[in-house]
Amino acid sequence: MDHVDSIVWQDKIYSRKDQKALEVQETNPAIQKDLIKHLGDDHYVIAAPNISIFCPGDDYPAHVPDLYVIPKNFTDWCVIEVERPAHTPTHIKSQIHVFTHGIYNDDVLLQNLKDKIIEMDSDVNQDLITNALKSLPQPKVLLLFDSDQGASKHIENLESYLDLKIAYWLRYEGINTPHRSFRRYDGWLPLFPTQSKLAVAHKSNNHERFNLKKCSSLLTRFNHRDGISLLHGGHETKWMLYQTENKWILIPMDAQASELVSKTKHKVNFIINDYQSHLALERV
Question: Nearest-5° angle of CA 45, CA 48, CA 51?
Fold first, then answer.
């Protein structure tokens, strides 16, 4: 995956740097805080129970996921494992295998997650939470690299895990102000629909735009002169929602949207999902 080498922010130029070594107790809370900014704590619970996941019948050892992300409507969920340059391919493959095929219907784990949800919302129906957690499907697995050093090689070794999600948490440092730095989330976000699918988008054959099909009338309420904002890969993209004859189309309005259309092949589909706080354009 290609990453932006430099970013202009508040009139200063920041360049991408190799991640400085951080201890787990420093990294995970910082990532958790960053995820809350992207997802919003009104609709999601982000927890870090220190509980091992086992994969019965395999020779792989138990592993502890770094974070759990659960939407409050309990439609799906995700476990996140933060990977660092020092981690070996064998270690990473073992983790992904266990988190993909492991057993999560464990009373201790579910009670821990339930306690976290109640801590955030004391008025919630506790019996409802218990039943909802037990009925969750196998979670999505997100591999979050805190550096892109060797990341592509690791990903190649994990190609057999077709539904594995990938993201990066990269560090940028001021070119003339090295004491100033920030981190940028780049890649798949653990967003789960809290409303419904609003449309399916695919690239037009003859134009640099997306055609929409199965377009819900609810989508038009977001349309205005300044365009429509769609979150893609953790970053905002700007579009004009335009109706021609009986068809709705998305026309890029900024560089990020134009680049996405340009790089997209004709048979690739995207879904526009409504997450209440924002809309997202997500590849199928």
Answer: 125
The Cα–Cα gap between 269 and 212 comes to 10
> Which helix (H) or strand (E) element contains residue 41?
none
Q: Give the residue among 209, 272, 273 at the shortest CA–CA distance from 243.
A: 209
- 61: DSSP letter: P
Distance CA 96, CA 75 (A): 22
Segment 235-266, tens digit of pLDDT: 889 999 888 777 888 999 999 999 999 988 88
Q: Answer whether residue 17 shows pLDDT above 70.
A: no
User: Is 147 a domain residue?
Assistant: yes
Minimum mean pLDDT range among 22-26, 153-157, 182-186, 215-219: 22-26
Q: Which residue in 220, 215, 201 sits closest to 260, CA to CA?
A: 201
Pairing of strands 67-71, 78-83: antiparallel
Report if residue 111 sits inside a domain: yes
| 178, pLDDT greater than 80 | no
For the entire predicted model, the pTM comes to 0.63
Cβ 82 vs Cβ 146: under 8 Å? yes
* Token representation of residue 58: 């395999």
8 A C-beta contact, residue 38 and residue 192: no
pLDDT on residue 65: 93
Residue 120 backbone dihedrals phi, psi, to 5 degrees = -85, -25
Mind listing the pLDDT tens digit for each residue in 78-91?
A: 999 988 777 788 88
Q: Residues 48, 109: contact at Cβ < 8 Å? A: no
Say what the alpha-carbon torsion angle 284, 269, 226, 247 is, to the nearest 10 degrees: -140
Has residue 150 been placed in a domain? yes
Q: Do 218 and 172 share a structural domain? A: no
